Amino acid sequence: MLFAGTAAQAADASAKRIMIFGDSNTWGYIPVESGTTTRYPEDVRWPGVLRAALGSGYEVVDEGLSARTTDLPDLTLPHISGAGLDGSAYLPAAIATHLPLDLVVIMLGTNDLKKMFDRSPLRIALGVGKLVDIVAQVKGGVGTSYAPPKVLVLCPPPLGTVAPPERAERFAGGLEKSKALPAYYEAIAKAANAEFLDVGKLTATDGVDGIHLSAAAHKAIGTGVADKVKAILK
């Protein structure tokens, strides 16, 4: 029994560890026209699809939070305390929590499109660049000496037709900005020595609310990202 336990620990130690850092489209928010919603099952959410597609030899950790931004506080949702919805405030602890990590996958920026933030596509991309820089700086966490993980930047797909009207007002001007994001994200990723994938080439934002993803879109993302992850960690 001791040998079996040691062998299992050795197998776990050899697995490639990946952390997915995102917002509601990583968390698995089911699109609805209005009101509250629930979450897709684990095997439907794109991190779960990724997990299944990668198979043995990989471990995938989900870190998705609805309404998370790249590096902005959102005081309109005060019930989320601590680091709140600011991705840059929470990311260092998230990395340290899940070390060792071979790869951090970041898909954020959709919530930065909200009208109240008044951000340009470049400024949103710079927020993502700040997150990439944080990954490089965290290093070994608390009392450890792990090397910084690699980073894969995912550009979210452009917004769809946002509905209902009150939500459309919240994201006014966001569609045009979201279409401009891939070029900026790619340039920032290249400058930061990170990998890049345009998720808009895998799927559209096809949920009824124009912001969130269908189950089919989750499947397309999980499968497409799996191919990219395998190439990075081969």
From TrEMBL:
Domain (SGNH hydrolase-type esterase): give its ranges: 20-220
Q: Name one GO molecular function term.
A: hydrolase activity, acting on ester bonds
- The reply to whether Hydrolase figures as a keyword in the UniProt entry is yes
UniProt keyword annotations, A-Z: Hydrolase
* Domain of life per record: Bacteria
* Presence of keyword Hydrolase: yes
Pfam families linked to this entry: Lipase_GDSL_2 (PF13472)
InterPro entries linked:
Ester_Hydrolysis_Enzymes, SGNH_hydro, SGNH_hydro_sf
Q: What is this protein called?
A: Hydrolase
Question: Whose protein is this, by species?
Answer: Skermanella aerolata
